[in-house]
Amino acid sequence: MASHLAPPLMRQLLCQCPKASTRSNLISRVPRLGLRPTAPRSLSTASVSAATKASQSSLLALIRSQTVSPSRHRRIRKIKVPPPPPAPATKDPIAVLTSAHIQELDPTGARTQLFSKTNRERIVAGDIVLVRFKNGDPFSGLVLSIRRRGVDTSMLLRNQLTRVAVELWIKIYSPNVEGVELVRRKEKRARRARVYYFRKPKHDIGSVEGVVSQYLRQKAALGGATTGGSGSKRILTGPKGKGRR
Fold first, then answer.
1. 1-59 residue pLDDT tens
2. Tens digits of residue pLDDT in 92-129
3. Phi, psi at residue 213, to the nearest 5°?
4. Exposure pattern of 206-228 as b/e (b: 16+ CB <10 Å)?
5. Which end of the chain is more exposed for a tag (fewer CB within 10 A), N or C?
């Protein structure tokens, strides 16, 4: 019915409505405003212009009542953003924290030097070592691998107890570790950093208790030639007294 009344006016007013619901509500309320479809030919020019102005004012009032100003509901409120924290003094704080922790656990640096790659007398895979604990019995075994992870640096030892193969990961910076002693070096330098092939029956050396007991007897005969300090013991030469080439 609204399209028969004033097509150009209705098209203009409907285009100004932002929402489809507002346009449908506007078209449905046009008959309530008293705007009846009449034949434009039976009216004079003055009456048609008066009716057009009346309908225009009524429709504009209806559109203003239906539309809502976006500024009423979309109020932009500024949120205070705190400034970013100051940049750290060092680029790698994890490395600084790790070094401080290692310095606290190993003040003399004996354990770090015993497994350092720059030390020619370091412990490598294939050596036999004896680890003493503050609480518990000592454990000896063959070094299968060494995992260097800062504070979590550890080594994997393998031995046989009552003909049963036993492997144990030992963290060298653990407060429970009292000392690490080198019992015997590998005769030939291993070509790999992990000697897992000792797990196979062909290369398994079995129990190392005999080698360790012989080392302890020689140590007692020589008067216990050990070096170390601050909760860490180390022996840089084996029973043969020869270093690594």
1. 444 445 555 555 555 555 555 555 555 555 544 545 444 444 455 554 665 666 667 76
2. 888 888 999 999 999 999 999 999 989 988 999 999 99
3. -65, -40
4. ebbeebbeebbeebeeeeeeeeb
5. C
